[in-house]
Specification:
The complex is a heterodimer of chains A (95) and B (495).
Chain A: H1 5-14, H2 21-38, H3 73-77, E1 83-84, E2 87-88
Antiparallel strand pairs in A: 1-2
Chain B: H1 8-16, H2 22-40, E1 43-46, H3 49-65, E2 75-79, H4 106-113, E3 117-122, H5 161-169, E4 174-179, H6 185-191, E5 194-197, E6 217-222, H7 225-235, E7 265-269, H8 279-294, E8 298-302, H9 310-325, H10 343-354, H11 357-370, H12 375-399, E9 402-406, H13 422-426, H14 433-438, E10 442-449, E11 455-462, H15 467-481
Parallel strand pairs in B: 2-3, 2-4, 7-8, 7-9
Antiparallel strand pairs in B: 1-3, 4-6, 5-6, 5-10, 9-11, 10-11
Classes of the chains: A mainly alpha (95), B alpha/beta (495).
């Protein structure tokens, strides 16, 4: 199955990576090459094999549903590219 | 003996006996960094001298009081993927070029608690994605080794290439690395040092910038196998902030080195005899087998039939997890932002300009294999093949205690080689990826030089949570090989 330009554009949109048309073809070729290579997995028989999720070395733990962190607003906001008082700022999204 | 040439174990003994101070040790390393880092580009950020020396003075005070910790006063480099409180942490990406975390990763916090003195943040492939350290937004790292009679700039391997180059060249006694598909072991082999990827879950992932969460694992990069044990002991341990962290007790890993390996069963997986393996690597592997046999190990042929599918499986699962993990870089809450009139425009421009080409391609690949219509064919299929790869290891470890393989299919290559075809570059990880997929521990030990004078490593893979046997066998291999070669560029040369 070969990857077309329209699908590449859709994937870029889903990933929110703005690619110029000139870059799209280059990306399409690179991805198509990798996809062609990983197609070798189609020869593996996985009938009845369960998918491996994580590395399954530890069972997931539960903990008490209590607050363990917080009260660090200023520390968190210290990393914001743009902020106003105790808020992050972004362009207006509702017209 | 130059202070920059010591092992952790030697330096710790010297500090405890007050033969030199932690301040002298730190100063020697700062001087070496001052002389060599412009050339090697091993560090992205070097910590301010007064901060390094203040940490060293505190260590000296603890030695004076007899309260020294496991890593007390030992100057180490930290891969710039570990968040360090108040110290810029970039993941070698433009998108985090000015990110100063307000918190400390669990692994670096443990090292600080053990008394380690941080020298700086070491360079890497952007977001740890790469095998040659050529995708860093802060420039490539130079391998301190040169081919005989050839000045070509060689790659240090990747992604923990800055850490490997720094340890090899005497710009740190040891360094932290992270390994997702070989990012500790392959650069360790390329730079002639020891690198240990612990069992998945042994070291907390909290505060380490995520690439592929089911594979990422922190580990030590050192000059000796005993050092790897010592440093792992300081890095490992349960952390409730990481849901995949193991709460098993942390053994005294360094004590495993020097233990007799007599009677241990060493498996030689047939599938690792890759077609086209350079003769020198095949020969060194045979030599390794002979050394372990002489040390009293029993050598057993084993089969890991799904080995050949490891890489293709990895290059579906790792990009899938990467696309999900890197969704957080949207230019809103932290990181660099590119302006645009709409919110979607901010995301798209921020991510197009903030990520380098390799990272963008992996995000796109991951987005594709997770997207509706392709999920079952690629991602689910890869997860099932991963089960088979893990079963191969579990079954092999019913017959043997460890596996012995080469670490990488070649010695360090030159910058510019293997660059055009991503698949060619991915083949670097052919021997390291399967252990990552299975989550088992694996160690690379330098054992010899090729005909051009470049280091080669052998890999020892062990059972889940059995780093001790891996270290024992690694110690035996190290003792037999007696690797004492130094790279062309190192702190003790030409001083």
């Amino acid at each position: 199955m070969s990857l077309d330009l329209a699908t590449t554009r859709r994937i870029a949109k889903l990933a929110r990576i703005g690619l110029e048309d000139a870059e799209l073809e280059n990306v399409r070729q690179k991805l198509d090459g990798i996809l062609g290579w990983v197609d070798q997995l189609s020869e593996v028989d996985v009938e009845g094999v369960p998918p491996m999720v994580g590395t399954e070395t530890e069972a997931l733990r539960q903990r008490e549903d209590v607050v363990t962190d917080g009260n660090c607003r200023d520390a968190i906001l210290s990393c914001a590219p743009e902020k106003s008082g105790p808020f992050y700022t972004v362009p207006k999204v509702v017209e | 003996m130059m202070l920059t040439g010591l092992t952790l174990t030697e330096a710790r003994a010297g500090l405890a006996a007050r033969k030199f101070s932690a301040r002298e040790l730190a100063q020697a390393h700062l001087d070496a960094i001052g002389r060599l880092n412009t050339q090697l580009n091993a560090y992205i950020t070097v910590l301010p001298e007064q901060d390094v020396l203040a940490a060293a003075d505190a260590a000296d005070a603890r030695y004076a009081k007899g309260e020294a910790g496991l890593m007390d006063g030992l100057p180490v480099g930290v891969k710039d993927l570990f968040c360090t409180k108040g110290v810029k942490t970039t993941a070698a990406s433009k998108i985090l070029a000015n990110f100063v975390p307000p918190y400390e990763s669990s692994v670096t916090a443990r090292l600080l608690d053990a008394g380690a003195v941080f020298l700086g943040k070491t360079n890497l492939d952007e977001f740890a994605m790469g095998s040659a350290n050529i995708t860093s937004a802060f420039g490539s790292v130079l391998n301190p080794w040169k081919r005989k009679g050839d000045d070509a700039a060689l790659v240090p391997g990747g992604s923990s290439g800055g850490s490997a180059a720094a340890v090899a060249a005497g710009l740190a006694l040891a360094a932290t690395g992270t390994d997702t598909g070989g990012s500790i072991r392959q650069p360790a082999a390329f730079c002639g040092i020891v690198g240990l990827k612990p069992t998945y879950g042994r070291c907390s992932r909290w505060g380490t910038i995520a690439f592929a969460s089911s594979l990422d694992q922190a580990g030590p990069m050192t000059r000796s196998v005993a050092d790897a044990g010592l440093m792992l002991e300081a890095m490992a341990g349960f952390d409730e902030k990481d849901s995949t962290s193991s709460n098993r007790p942390v053994p005294e890993f360094s004590k495993a080195v020097g233990k007799s390996v007599k009677g241990l069963r060493v498996g030689i997986p047939a599938e690792y005899r890759a077609p086209g393996m350079p003769e020198e690597i095949a020969r060194l592997w045979e030599q390794g087998i002979a050394w372990l046999r002489e040390a009293g190990c029993e050598v057993v042929d084993v089969s890991l039939p799904h080995t050949k599918y490891g890489l293709a499986t990895y290059y579906i699962i790792a990009p899938a997890e990467c696309s999900s993990n890197l969704a957080r870089y949207d230019g809103i809450r932290f990181g660099e932002r590119q302006d645009a009139p709409t919110l979607d425009g901010i995301y798209e421009r921020t991510r197009a300009e903030g990520f380098g080409q390799e990272v963008r391609n992996r995000i796109l690949m991951g987005t594709y294999v997770l997207s509706a219509g392709y999920y079952d064919a690629y991602y689910l299929k890869a997860q099932k093949v991963r089960t088979l790869i893990k079963r191969d290891f579990v079954q092999a470890f019913e017959q043997v205690d460890v596996l012995l393989t080469p670490t990488a299919p070649s010695a360090a290559f030159a910058q510019g080689e293997n660059m055009d075809d991503p698949v060619q570059m991915y083949l670097n990880d052919i021997f390291t990826v399967p252990a990552s997929m299975a989550g088992v521990p694996a160690l690379s030990v330098p054992v010899g030089l090729d005909s051009r004078g470049l280091p080669l490593g052998l890999q020892i893979i062990g059972r889940h949570f059995d780093e001790e046997t891996v270290l024992s066998v690694g110690g035996a291999l190290e003792a037999a090989a007696g690797f004492a070669h130094k790279p062309t560029l190192h702190a003790e040369a030409g001083v």
